[in-house]
Design brief:
Blueprint: H1 8-25, H2 30-37, H3 41-48, H4 57-67, H5 71-79
Helix pairs in contact: 1-5, 2-3, 2-4
Amino acid sequence: MVRVPLSESERERGVRLGRALREARAGRSMVEIALRAGISTETLRKIETGRIPTPAFFTVASLADALGLSMDRLLREVEAPEEPLARSS
């Protein structure tokens, strides 16, 4: 099976997802949130930095629950950015 490369908009959406999760985490540690969500700290780190731009639905749902976020709110934050993301090199 060949995986189709992600589009630029899909990668940007992954970065926005990571940013929203990181902001919601606030002062809580990655270890605390990862444990609550049932994922590894490294997976959380990769999602927050956009290195995993399309995490599984249940991973996102577990993170939202661990952070006390509704999926609706998270979707609004990810789909409607306040400003376009700067392209990083």
